[in-house]
Amino acid sequence: MQSKKGKKALGDKAKGGGAGRVTGPGWVNGHHQENGMENMTLFEVVKMGKSATQSVVDDWIEAYKHDRDTTLLDLINFFIQCSGCKGAVSGEMFRHMQNSEIIRKMTEEFDEDSGDYPLTLSGPQWKKFRINFCDFIAVLVRQCQYSIIYDEYMMDTIISLLTGLSDSQVRAFRHTSTLAAMKLMTALVNVALNLSINMDNTQRQYEAERNKVIAKRANDRLELLLQKRKELQENQDEIENMMNAIFKGVFVHRYRDAIAEIRAICIEEIGVWMKLYSDAFLNDSYLKYVGWTMHDKQGEVRLKCLTALQGLFYNRELSTRLELFTSRFKDRIVSMTLDKEYDVAVQAIKLLTLVLQSSDEVLTAEDCESVYHLVYSAHRPIAVAAGEFLFKKLFSHRGPEEDGLPRRGRQSLNGSLIKTTVFFFLESELHEHGAYLVDSLWECASELLKDWETMISLLLDEPMPGEEALNDRQETALVEIMLCAIRQACECHPPVGRGTGKRVLTAKEKKTQLDDRTRVTEMFAVALPLLLAKYCVDIDKVTNLLQIPKFFDLDIYTTGRLEKHLDALLRQIWEVVDKHTDTEVLEACSTTCHYLCNEEFTIFNRVDIARSQLLDELVDKFNRLLEDFLQEGEEPDEDDAYQVLSTLKKITTFHNAHDLTKWDLFTSNYRLLNTGLQNGDMPEQIVVHAMQCTHYIILWHLAKVSDGTSVKGDMVTLRKQMRAFCLMCQRYINTINNAVKEQAFTILCDLLLIFSHQIMSSGREQLESLVYTPDSSLQAELLNFILDHVFIDQDDDNSTDGQQDDEASKIEALHKRRNLLAAYCKLIIYNVVEINTGADIFKQYMRYYNDYGDIIKETMSKTRQIDKIQCAKTLILSLQKLFNEMLSELGFNFDRSSSAFCGIKELARRFSLTFGLDQLKTREAIAMLHKDGIEFAFKEPSPQGEGSPPLNLAFLDILSEFSSKLIRQDKRTVHMYLERFMTFQMALQREDCWLPLISYRNSLQAGADDDTMSVISGISSRGSTVRSKKSKPATASKRKLPEGEHFWCSLVNHLFHLPQQLICSMSSSTSKQLLVSRHALRQDEEPHAASNVRSSTLNCFWPNFEPIKSLTKSSLLTCYVFVTRHSRRGSGLMEDDEEPIVEDVMMSSEDRLEDINEGMDFDTMDIDLPASKNRRERTELKPDYFDPSSIMDDSVGVFHSL
Questions:
Q1: pLDDT > 90: what percent of the chain?
Q2: Number of domains in the chain
């Protein structure tokens, strides 16, 4: 409707102006015409983007030449509509109203229901619209630059409108107009640049003509050139006035706008102006805005500042004019390399790289060092940018003496650059991750890092005369860098901890990867045996060198006729195994042999023979040494023990990756363990490795049995060996040495998990005879081990032999204890041990939260998935254990404000949070938790005799932390179960020692009182209507009471089932009569008594219960009024998370006021809930599961069924 009115106004304006309707070929009535049909406004044309921007602008210019008012009005409405405003400027408004009035009018017509407008809308169409919007402004100015923009009408009107809109309080107007004004300014900068170039050309032509001799000088041409220069100067002045108007009217105010996106637009465009027209804008008057904005709070604005500066520093001619700016803001740029926004930090490093290229003297050594260490950043883009900076700084400068050096080899240029890389790696002492350094340099220096020929030459060749050789530490660093470069080339993905995962390689990258792998194999198949021979005794170098073969293409050994080099490699591996006992070196040898011994390649037989020979020698040596070591009557010396240990360690390491079952090592290892258990003087490392080796023997045996490759009788043998070894580990758990006990515990937990009932899964029922279930004594020993060795203070851990003060040792000890706890928790999760054994683990959740909180929490989560009810019983059991420990420490007269009791309550609160928000899923578990908690609270009588609270009554205060997880009807059920344990005297107690009971009962009745309100509403004359908020609350005296026996029967029945603390809040005489009556009913043995109360009339109800006869109708009415008032106080509206209100029940029960109703003025809002609502909710929440009547019957009660 608004667009139609706008069109009519435009037509009226044209007629009123006396101008005939004369339009251009593509414009009709201010609307664009396509295929001869008027169908779209200028905004719709730009939004659709189907027409070329050039043709749209040309049509608009043609229309402007014939009727500039109408066409300019359409352009004004274009900016209004691009802001998302539904209004339109009419011709009348355009002629008679100021810009401020028009903007105010448009603001009133703006749609405030949605904060979206075209520039903020998502989707490809609106992204394209933004591009088309900017292109339209640029093309419009470019097409008008020779005539229309100088008519002192169009540009003045547009600039005035955009300036006014940019100052609007409406974000859409401000954002859209700022973008339009900045793009308009950019277009004018291009016009000014063209004018400047034309003026320079005209000036040169004029000077050339004037310098001619008089006979050849053309005076007419001189006059024309002077006239042209004058016109260009006038145009230049006018353009500068326009730019000044936009800069001072829009930019100066909006570059510090409250909206970050608007500030970013301004900074982005000023960077374009300085780059396009540096003579006018590249000075301190404009650069200061970029420098100031680098301190902006929003990352996107800081990012625009850096990208704007990058465009300036990229041009060397412009960078020389930035010296003053650089000296002023250099420190800020350097600090932005540590920006919290990763994108900003990356661009800051790239900017410093450009600054470095422009001048070596700008950045100090401290500035460069602040960037150097970022090559070890976990964020890869930052590391890559820092790697490029490092490469430009250290590797890009060549002296004249380096031009004639060879391309490869020790004396090549790469040789000196590789040395520089090694020196840098060693100097960065805080970071020892060679893989991170190589990955950072890979994109800019991959050719250098893949020059393995030069690296090998630096390691193997002797230094030339006068050349300084690499020392041992530098050679170790070079070997590590070489290995990392090989890994990067063959795997083509960043190291662990940097990057989200492996990406899909392109065809070109795959070809490069295969070529690099071939080069690595051909080069190191020959060089690796030589390197191992040279550095055979060096642990670090050998460990890294032995990892290189896993990147080989093993087919090349055959196709390249390199078998002799393979034999040399196997001999060197044999030598390394013979000379070393270090675990890392032995594992590297085992892994290399496992990779080379692959049945898919033709070299398998050659490698398998060499491996068998090596293992034969090791096993024979071990058996021989063991016989001498275990000879009776002789005391083994340290040398014999060392020989046994070193040989056993080598066998164990190889057994981890290779099947050694044919050597039958179980007998010798079991004999060694049994002897150590009997004598007690076996070195701990021998026992530890013997256990580990025996563990591998059993696992390899199980693998053969599972695969079906074993012979008859193997399963029986495996069963005997497994059970004998488990018994052996169980006995070793009770020894003195910590390292032995920890090893025995870890292996025993792994075996119990492997040989549990899970072993029969996935169709492996034939392994049923191998299932091993720990008995109660073994479960108790495992639990005691955890309690004694895991849940200890840091200072109590003596496993590091006096090095506990070392931070690294503390971390290592904690890591070891976490592994022990995780091993045991897996037994709980997979139901290998009883779930309730986790109670002793769960109770430590708060005390050791920093060390083991994640493990314990995950264990609770997994056990809840297995069995919700059993998990809940375990949680409440852990709280009971802590409560009993507190009682034994503080006594039964402890203070409930003590730190111990508050800690248990906090733990209960944490446990409650783990149940989540879905109460229906945890309904049964929470109910069982409350049942066990109530039984525990009343289990032990008071040590002070009758009349005192039970010993564990304070536990109800802890149990109340779980009340919010009960749904409403379950709260009532739990409350009734609680009353089964209460006596009549307990209900009347108000002393402080009974507060836990009062508090717990209140927490159960916080949401259950809605039922009371619904009953009162049901017997009320008002029916089920909800009181209006504006209506005046009615008092009890004005309530019309129903008559008839049915009302009295319903009232007695309802009063009989009221919550106990509500009865105690009545007058003393009435409350005592009701409590006595209810207690009589609770003691009645007939289960149908309650149903009789519901169905009988008052006349038949009273004879059955004598105490009720004393209740007169007057007393009943008093109770009715009190309960009605109590329900209006909102007792049933308490949220589950609120603290129970106990003030009313803490008053003295003996000396209460005669009538608590008198003098009480309730000014709270009255709320009557319809009775049907509560009934509907109870139906939706499965009322059959918890029935208040069935809970009292042992045969069907839910607590008894659970």
A1: 49
A2: 2
